[in-house]
Amino acid sequence: MKKLFKISAAAAMIGVLALAASGCGGGSSKKANVTNEVVKFGVTNFADNLDPADNFFSWVVMRYGLGECLVKFDNKMNATPWLADKWSISDDKLTWTFHINDTVKFSNGDKLTAEIAKESLERTFKLSNRAQSIFQYAEIKADGQNLIIKTKNPTPSLPGMLADPLFIIIDTKVKDRDIKKQGPICTGPYAVKTYSKAKAVMVANPNYWDGAVPFKNAEIPTIDDPNTRAMALQKGEIDFAINIAAGDLQLFKDKAKYNISEIASLRTVLAQINMNEGKPLHDPKVRAALIQCLDRVTYNKVLLKDTFIPGKAPVPPSLDYGFDQLKDPNAYNPENAKKLLAEAGWKDTNGDGYVDKNGKNLEIDFVFYSGRAELPLYAEATQADAKKIGIKVNMKNVDYNVLDPMRQKGQFDLIISNILTANTGDPEVYLNWYWKSNINGSQPQNSTGYSNPKFDALSDKLAVEFDPAKRRQYMIEMQQILLDDGVALFFGYPKTNMVSKAGLANANIYPADYYWLTKDIAPKN
Known about the structure:
This protein is of the alpha+beta class and 525 residues long. 30% of the residues lie in helices and 22% in strands. The strands form 5 sheets. Strands 1, 8, 9, 10, 11, 12, 13, 14, 17, 18, 19 and 20 form a 12-stranded mixed beta sheet that branches. The chain has a 4-stranded antiparallel beta sheet with strand order 4-5-7-6, with helices on one face. It is globular and about 70 Å long.
């Protein structure tokens, strides 16, 4: 695994350079001070524009303190009031009533009404095919400040679904604004001054409904490389940063200068496997061989310095969905992986080190993006371990915005993502998105050709089940089916962090990692 050692050595060298930078005044107490004039936040950013209905760009709209939803998650991923201060459900389990908080105003001073909330949700459903894959409604109407949503089927997790950033509420009364270029008018603590993918500048919302806005301005430069973010924080160029790389966290242990907020995340890093007919991983034995040859324990403990938990199942162990009781039929076993390839008819007949069949080598294209530090590491490790059993892995580093279209068009053999598994409060939507049968485009994230009637039947039961214990059991059974079918490479489960100057208060990371620049982050008194 020479390449892996080169990566580790490079990461170590970056850490040494960063440490040297800190010895040159980068962590001075003066630079730890923060005033209420401006806060500078180093981030990763994949959004070409700020239209919350476009792609997954709503995450950035929320992360930058612009947009808010009817519902919010607390630290335990419970759905709690936000723009809606209360809600109820009818006896037939189809009609939900959300009361819109009377005190909420948009940044332009317009009052948030149930009618505007209705129009905002309808806009989202019109422009985003992802909305239909979260829930389907029969009717939305406004009655005073009550927003009434009638779903087509019982939808137990609707409040949590409405907490997804896709359903950010925007001011639909504004008709002459170019949302893609100027951003939407929202209800959050900050409003857009200027936006580009490289840098955003926000200003305090003068009409914010939920307390004083702590900073007059917020500057948010995009610093995709995590080591560069760490250096920028040490040099005092930014006040806080998201997701400092594992090897650099040690540079911020001095509590007099920095605060580290770190939690076990709700994310899974996985590579979907394209198993459509004609693809090399269509054969279940080849899929099993690939999974079994990957030393995921070493990847996470050595390469990622124990800041990731080794992967096994779709849902991370930070969520109580049976992680320990699930059985992985494809645990690390490289010798058995070689046998499986031979059984599938793949053998190295020409001595080039790669197995072949009918005159063609077994080659797999692995698509990844480098915005998250762990993804190229996993890809490199996969390439190295797969080569040991004779599989050739071709790495394809793409821009994030190309990733989702490639996924939906099935233009990959393996495609890796760092995925929030409980974006609606539990893993139901996540499991459906990636593995429920994609009938008539109902699950656009599943272009892998995977379809299992038993999985679909459990998903259908889950969709109308309100009992938490039964819901949990269904999702455990669904995961076991996915493991038995070898549907994906589950690499690991990351911790997530936010690192800030000591002069900044409440720069805390949340399980749902779209709460970044919040109303609570403020200068320390």
